[in-house]
Each structure stands twice: as C-alpha cells, then as structure tokens.
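REQUEST ID: PR-0412
SUBMITTED BY: lab tech R.K.
PRIORITY: routine
TASK: structure prediction, single protein chain
INPUT:
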Amino acid sequence: MYQEAADSVIQGLIEPCPHGARPSCVSPAVLTTARQSSLTSSFSDHLVGKDPQAMRTGQRQNKGMRNRLGCLSHKSDSCSDFTAILPDKPNRALKRLSTEEATRWADSFDVLLSHKYGVAAFRAFLKTEFSEENLEFWLACEEFKKTRSTTKLVSKAHRIFEEFVDVQAPREVNIDFQTREETRKNMQEPSLTCFDQAQGKVHSLMEKDSYPRFLRSKMYLDLLTQSQRRLS
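STATUS: complete
OUTPUT:
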C-alpha cells in the first residue's frame, strides 16, 4: 500500500528531465563514475552468445540503468528528477493530499509517520539516499506489534531479525553493537517488545538525520507548491 502511494505521490511532484539533459545537481561521493560503469557494463556481460533480439533488449536495459544511476548519483537535497527511479503510476494520491496535511509533516517526525502519504513520500526520498531500509525496518516493527498469534510472532520476529538486524543482513540497519546483541538475545524468547530498543535507535537516527534533509529537499517543497496551486 505504501509503495503504491509513494509511486503516485512522487510521480505528481516533478516533471522528468528533458531527454539528454543533465539534472542540475551535485554528485555525492557514495556513487562514483566507476561504480556506474561497473553496474551498467554488467548487462553487456550477459549478452555474450545471445541472439540479436536479446542484444537489443540488453541495450535498452543498459540505457535504462544509466538513466537511473544518473539520477541516483545526485544529492537528494537538490535533485528533483525522481521519476527516473519510480514506475509510472496515475497521479491519484497527490489529488487527495491537501496543503494543510503536507505542511503538518514539518511539525514533527511522528506526524509525518502518522500520515500514509507522508510515509510514502519519505520512503521515496530515502531511496535516493540508499537508506530506505531504516524506514522499512521501523514499519515492519510497527506491523509486528499487531501480531496476536504466538506462532506467527516467533516466525515474524526471526524474519525481521534476519532481514534487518543481523550482521550482514540483506537490509541491515545502522545500529550499535550493544543494541544488535540485545536484540539477538531477545530472539531466544521473542515478544511484542523484542525490537523496541532497535526500533527506537533507528527512529532517532531518521529523526535527526534524514527527516531534516527531507524537509529541505526540493521534492517536499515541490509537493507543497503543487498542492497550493490546486487550491488557487
């Protein structure tokens, strides 16, 4: 549900960059030209021995990957072209978003998290910073707390731990060693509160780090501007 809302919100925020134009953004150190070349060339590596149709498909994939990396290689605080990394969706969510609702997201981080379109927009922003796992973990913990079945609770707890908390987990969140080990001990007898400490750490990290940047981002400012235009 959140993913669909994110696609709809962000698709309505900005217009795609003109063909062949370079977004006026500053490249961060986290994504270098070498990494872009490495990733895009990986498509070509799989084309050896393929028929012409497969090669044409690979070329289109290669071009698509370059477009995505071109946008992701820019700082999210200034880059406005998010459509390159999101699938096309009808602009339905934006039409239901009022200026008052979007403005309230700046009141506090918890207000943002309490609004489904706020979560959707924040998730899309975090994707540009390669840190969406923090929000996904926080949301997984919120959903986990609603579990009533003891059997499901145990399996869900281990799934969340293995996906987000364990060392070298696929979507490992940034928490300290002590918190990670305390959470590991909690897996011996999982309860509804077994992730509270880790969830609190991740919440604090997003609130102090990512949330202020989101409020300064062109994406959020464009959202406010467009919602105001609909009222005028």
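NOTES: The radius of gyration is 20 Å.
REVIEWED BY: pending
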